[in-house]
Specification:
Number of strands: 11
Bound molecules: flavin mononucleotide
Order of helices and strands: HEEEHEEHEHEHHEHEHEHEHHHHHH
Structural class: alpha/beta
Helix content: 40-55%
Distance between the termini: 30 Å
CATH superfamily of the largest domain: Aldolase class I
CATH class of the largest domain: Alpha Beta
Strand order of the largest sheet: 3-4-6-7-8-9-10-11
Shape: globular
CATH topology of the largest domain: TIM Barrel
Length: 340
């Protein structure tokens, strides 16, 4: 099983004429999937594509990549980096996508899945699923504007009905999307109830373009099960990739973390935050990351609290050394209550 899974995860797939070297993606995560986390993940390897956290289409058009915490990247990651956009204007989404294409990203991902209040109130993210005709116009407009692969990330919709997801999937495909990433949860449920993987199978069977599954894949056996039971073309990993940035390398190349891995990863992440963000932001973002990383340890809550009791990265690093030497016991799986 494990051997077959790793072979599958390493198999290339062509999306809109462009080769993708594998089947495991880093899911878009605002506040977590930034340039720093992506550099750390890249150190271990094993992923096929990395998705940025959602960027406002309006902002992307004029954004300075060297000042933004979200719309920023390393040139060497561009060939496997997809920028996610949120917005609701077909014209503005198209203009932002053109910038993404011109900057050299692998592709653009359109957000029809985010169900947090500040986004839905602007009629963006999952709110758009209430108006499939606008969804169609957005994808068509982006399709006309760019040649790079267009991904669509979406969820079931506003009622727990797989037919709604299938209908939306067909609209996206028909409007010109090249691949779908489907998170089978109803809006506005964030992550309280389990996602319904059986809906992924229905979406996969309804369209010809590749479909990637997402939601609650934590262990290798979850990944194998999602692929086997839904027939999806690959898997997009969210929270587990923050807790274990080496997860892609583990599942594709058999990388096994040791005690040094945990300590080094924690310290090196702190250094990356210092490198990429100004001091106040780096502490704020580090704390977000630390919660996920500390979830790896038994008594992760108290380790987390001890580490983040600081207001600069140097103190944070000292706290890490204090709490990770000697190495605390690692749980088999991260504490899901800490992966908010
Ligand atoms: C902190 C956080 C931020 C997220 N931000 C985004 C986002 O910007 N765009 C998006 O499409 N999904 C976003 N998501 C949803 C994830 O991409 C993913 O669908 C969800 O976490 C389920 O996958 P998982 O169980 O592998 O974590 C976010 C999730 C989390 C936990």
């Amino acid at each position: 099983m494990t051997v077959r899974l790793s072979e599958f995860l390493k198999k290339s797939i062509v999306i809109s004429g462009k080769k993708v070297h594998g089947r495991l993606f880093l899911a878009p995560m605002a506040g977590l999937g930034h340039i720093g986390l992506r550099e750390m993940i890249s150190e271990y390897g094993g992923f096929a594509l990395l998705f940025s956290g959602m960027c406002s289409a309006k902002t992307v058009i004029h954004e300075n990549r060297f000042k933004s915490t979200v719309f920023s990247w390393r040139d060497q990651e561009l060939s496997s980096l997809v920028c996610q956009l949120f917005g609701n204007s077909p014209e503005i989404m198209a203009e932002a996508s053109m910038r993404i294409e011109n900057e050299g990203f692998f592709g653009v991902d359109l957000n029809f899945g985010c169900s947090v209040m500040p986004i839905c109130k602007q009629n963006c993210g999952a709110a758009l699923l209430k108006d499939l005709s606008l969804c169609r116009q957005i994808v068509q407009s982006v399709r006309k504007a760019v040649k790079i692969p267009i991904f669509v990330k979406f969820r079931t919709g506003w009622e727990d009905n797989p037919r709604a997801a299938v209908k939306a999937a067909r609209v996206f495909e028909d409007a010109g999307a090249d691949a779908l990433v489907f998170h089978p949860r109803v809006a506005p449920d964030r992550r309280t109830r389990p996602p319904k993987w059986e809906y992924i199978k229905m979406v996969k069977e309804a369209v010809l373009i590749p479909v990637f599954g997402n939601g609650n894949v934590i262990e290798e056996k979850d990944c194998a099960k999602m692929i086997e039971t839904t027939g999806c073309d690959g898997v997009s990993l969210g929270r587990i990739a923050v807790a274990r940035p080496w997860i892609f390398a583990s599942w594709t190349n058999g990388f096994i973390p040791d005690t040094d891995t945990y300590l080094n990863c924690f310290i090196n992440m702190a250094t990356l935050f210092e490198k990429y963000f100004e001091p106040v932001i780096s502490v704020k973002l580090f704390k977000k990351f630390a919660r996920y990383f500390a979830a790896n340890f038994c008594f992760g809550h108290s380790i987390y609290t001890g580490i983040v009791r600081a207001d600069n990265i140097e103190d944070i690093k000292n706290n890490i050394l204090k709490h990770l030497k000697p190495m605390p016991e690692v749980s088999l799986n991260p504490n899901m209550n800490m992966l908010l």
